[in-house]
Structures
1.
Amino acid sequence: MDAELVQEMVRSGATSVAGLMATAAWNQASSRIARLFGRGERDEEASAELEVIRAEVLEADGDEEVLADQAAALRNRLRALFRTNPQAAEELFDILREFLPGQFEKAPGGTYIINTISGSSTVNSDLVIQAGIIHDMRH
């Protein structure tokens, strides 16, 4: 992964992990994400720290400020992790690709695709559609 993509993984990865914490899929994803943060040496400690963040995410009950704070905490952890272990960005990408299909994908040729919509899911009261190549578009 190039440096720009690693930075995108810090941003979108943190937000996605925080969002994943509020879903049933967290039960399956949490041990893998804890191993990612713990790097095989501090997995239990990382798991406990992630569960503290998760508790705050769940207690936030949609409070955007609290959710933003938890995403910021995860961003800081990811930034430190990726600085010491750049391969961890690709590991996180693969985990998120498994648990958030459609948001994190790899295109033919190894191109990384990260689909992110910030804020409202509508723009000017119209739906936002993200697409790759749309064949045979006629205007």
2.
Amino acid sequence: MAAAPGPMRPQRLVGMHRAHLVPSQQLGMIIRKMMENRIRVMQALHQPTPETVAEHKRQIISTQDDISALVDAYRAASAPSDQLQIIASWNDSSLRYKDGIDAVIELLEKDDVSGAADIAYTDLQQLYQPIVANASAMLQRHLDTDSAEFRRAQTSYARHIAFAIALMLIAVATAAWLGFALVDAIMRPLRDARALASAIGSGDLSAAVIDRHDDEIGDIVQAILNISGNLRGLTRDAAIASDTTTDAAFRIADDARDIGLHVIEQKQALARIASQTHELRKTMESQLEHATAAHELVGDNVTLSASSRMALQQVIQSIDTVQQATNRIGDIVTVMASIASETDLIALNAAENARSSDPRHALELVVDEVRNLAKRSRSASSGARRMMSEIANTLDRCATSLRTCRERLDTIGVHANEVAHLMASNIENAHAHADSAALVDAELLKLTRLAEDGADLSSQTMERAVMLRKSAEQLLYRMSFFTLSVGESSAKASPSSTLALQTADSGAER
């Protein structure tokens, strides 16, 4: 099975998003300008003044320059081959459409309104359809690219979250294992020391002889064996042994103080680890909120894009309606021209009938014809006014749809900027994750070293404390049965021996 591709780096992802954002804005502006140019051409057919025609010609040249600049921008951004193919097709169709508009402008400059109208209502309509199709394909391509980039970013974010959670679980498991090991390392020597002290207290020195310790415990056991064989020498040297015991007690107190310092350092390290873990959790929650907000914004962009496509379709349908109404107005103009021709015929007939023998009958015929022509004229005028009203209403709907489309495209741009900002914030949070993980790792390493040092010191201190206490109690008990001089008994312990026993008790409790 092939290995899954690695997650895309966030820096590269944000760069691609911003590279697609600028051409998308330019594409929307150019589509709006092309639609405005189409409306201007229709207006020029009704008001073909030289100033209007010159202004339309300048706007068309500016729009084609913008299209060429957009094509260059896509090529400079190293866009995919299918996207370059779509933009090239759009450029070709826009050039053909520009040639058609140039032909209309030339006819308008020659005052040939009828020829310009024929081209505008037939050829330009056919040339405009590929432009709309290619523009829709470009917008859909941008939306698909942005959606794919967001999904890749979301997948990368999920992998980072899983890695961070796994790292935290490993750290917790390691800390638990170290705790159990530390407790076992401390309690095992204590159990051995307790067994040895019990054997010595009961007088069974054979158990102490087979002890496995080669340290102070073994020395004390050997000393006890020597004491049992030479009590008189032990009594003479009791004062020296008491001083030695006092020094050992002080060393045990120093070791206990070192253990206390190590415990404090361990507590501080655990507090720092808890703080870093809390910060890491807050950063992860912030990343989750940003990803949720980015997902909602992308969904809003998709909805707005669908609404924009519907608005553009409504504009196209309105333009078709205007074209049909214009054709009907042309028919009405034809009817009115035929009425004018028939009026001329009636005038000729009236002149001939005036020269005839029955002028009154001829006048009645003329009046009937004129009345019929007046009815047809009123009907044609009403139809023309109705068509003009429909054209005005259709143009109003076109303007409303265009404004709605522009507002939705602006909203899409704002949402895209917010998504880019959220992705940049997620990148910063990912860096903060890495820093927090490094700090937690350093604190865990330090805590491990402190735990090992504390375990060693605790083991040595507790073994020495238990050994010292048992040895001092047994020594004082044995010394109470002997007399150092006449009238003086050793039952009363010396001050140095009492201080050694108290110090040993304090060390054992610590």
3.
Amino acid sequence: MSDINPAETLEQLQQLQKESGDLKSQLAILRISEPIFSPDAENQSQSLSKRTSDASAIDNPTPASLEADLTHYKELFSKLRFSYVEQVTKEKFLRAIVGDPPLVVGHNENVELETQLAEVKAELKASKEEVRMMIEEMEKTGRDLANRYNNVELQMTQLSTLPESIENLESTIAELRAKQASDAEASSSQNLPLPATLSLVAEREAELAALNRQLAAVQNALPRKTREAEAMERELGALNDGSQRRSPRLERLRGKARGRK
């Protein structure tokens, strides 16, 4: 496996980013929002109804602005649906009463229509539940992609500083190797071949054995020397006591000698 060069990898990523443009502009949620933020769509929506929010006029869309737009279009769709149902109902009613012959709906037909309406409502509810689950899955996937994108950005930032760190480490390794070589030259005894090393070890062991013998002899002579020192201390104490007793007598003799003179 060939070694990976961080500098080349970073250069390839930067080249890919330049070719594909800003990664944030390639996100699917922003591509979905582009028709909403296009001038044609904005003019059409303003021609239908005066908006109370200008969230779609933002140059850089954010999740908050997209959510505001989504809420606005939901409300607008609800109003348009109510108007459509109202207009279609009026049209069908007028056509039924002015038709030739007039369309008369009986009780049985109403029961059948109510049954069909209940089935359609059940299908619509199931579709809404499916859509809700799909939205939850999309939100989960979006969060996962956002976390992965943040990790990629963090790794790219770390990768941009990695070549400099590698150069510093390589220079540090070179300095340590040079220092190790100089230390090896200074201490030639650490670089001896095996026979010379064994001979040096034997010499050091002989010196150590001689020192151990001298130490044992000194330890054996230590009690005798201690006793001699104690005897000398006792003799010195006796001499001190004798000199202290002779001192008054010498003073009296010296006084008598001065009186005779």
4.
Amino acid sequence: MRENVCRSWVCAAALLLAATTADRARGDESVSQKGQTADQLLAGRVVDPAGKPIPGVRIWTWQTDEDERQGSEPRPLAITGPDGTFRIPHIQPFPFLAACPPGWLYAGKQVFGSGPFPELELRLQPGLRAAGRVVDASGKPVAGVLLWAKHEGRGGGGCVRITVPPPCGYPDQGISTSTDAEGRYVFESLKPGWVEVSVSAEAEHSRLRRRGEPGGEIAGLDFVLTRTRVSLEGRVLDPEGDPLAGAAVTLETVLPEEETVTDEEGVFRFAQVLSGTSRLEVSHPDHGWIRQDVEIEERPLHLDLQMPRGTLLQGRILGPEGAPVEQVFLSFGKDYADVAPDGSFRLTVPPGEYEISGTCFRPSGKVRRRLTVTGREEGIDLDLRLARPGTVRVRLTGLPPGDPGKIDLKDRSEEDGLSFGTKDGFHEIDKVLAGTWTLVASDGNGRVFERRFEIAEGETVTLAGIDFPPLPAVRGRVLDPAGQSVAQAQVTFRQGNREIQAETDAAGRFVTWLRDGSWTLRAERDGFGPAIAAAELSSGTPVELPDLRLSRLVTASGRLVGVAPEVVVPQVQAREGDAATGPWATMEPGNRFHFPGLWPGTWTLTADVDGQEVSTTFVIQPGDTAVDVDLSAEEGAPPK
């Protein structure tokens, strides 16, 4: 089954599958067939590509909601016999069956109807095995390191990502595993072709790409960590200096588990911690939390930590009508409080400045409040009421053609959840809390006008219109290398972070409206290199710019050298000047690449070779039609 399917009937079927929660009987080895008629039984067999039966294959389907809530391990519906066959009851409408034994790629099928059912065949394809080892800088194995593997360096896209019954997974999606006590890991069932394996910890190579055949194995995918492993222990005390038991301690660079809990003496221990900077968090329901960066040196470390005096925040949050509402989201900065059905909440926080944010959607309501906690309070009682938000409207006039303008609220919080739109010629901001605000209107040229207003709970406020003064027209023409007019060329004007675009007409002419100042122009059209110029505008008068002449495209070709035969480098990127992005070229046999669409200027080629970037810079001169440039991955190659 394909990973992503965009036909509407498949999308609908996937959603129906996800919503199906009917009872599903299952067993560790097989499912009892007592009471099932022949029409109600599903019979099937699992075979290899040649049609030969595969015994001992577990057949999976979805877990029940109760199993998922309890975190139960998936259990198979059946296991194939010596002849590769299995029989199970028809357990639900639209059952979905899957098989994913080690060494074989996932296969699954969906069954429609109520019976009788034809025999179901799951034909498995051989997978690819990839294995390796993770060691530290001294060569000792490292346990608990997380690794990922994915096919062709990417996951799939599409309208719906259809999940599959655990423990199966699609071969195109990234899968993960961890190293054992000997630092070894293995991916049993990867999709053949070239695969990418990456490691979560800092290593000499952060990822390795190799190619493998169906039924084959890629061995020796080894990683050497650049950080040293040390032990870390510490003690957590309460605000009075007594040992604090039951505090959760989390550290980012711990192997294999990131979290532990303090014992009766307030002590915690991590056997393996990677050196360097790591984020530490200690939390306790009665004392709040500590969050800080810890510098771990290359030797065992002991930490003594004392919790600050926490303050209990408690109260109720009610809806706009003064009664509890469902699905209230209540946050204190980055932390959320659980809200009971009656609207009550309790949360212990350390000293600090907090922005309290409450939101509900049915009915619509919001509340915002700022709170300072010093740690000297015995407790703080909070009674919060969600208010009905309002709407502010304003009409913007005088804007240049094609510039819709925009509005916002000054000094608003990113957590305000405002809604922006236009209606009946007005710009609108919805979900505005009651209070005094400043509306900010701006255009693409960066001109700004402010308007102060007050809004009551649930009110719609219409402000007086904001009129932008007219701007002078800026005109010009775009020509090809032969001097002919170019239609549908894109002309971009940049001034700082501002960007305004225009398009040429059939005569190659363009017009836009700009404020005074220094502007950079870039004209582009498919099939040509860009034309770049600068313009200085002043005195607010119309301007006719000199013609912008596009350049001929140049082909850059070369070879990636110094790469071992087993290493896969899928692509090379070319970037012009200091651009952050640029075109990609797919690597051809012999590690050759071609860029047929470059233009005069300074370029940088980059490639990812086993997680390390290699690069080189070259120049295309005006008048060049082709250039040759090699990219070297060898040690001692010219620096980037």
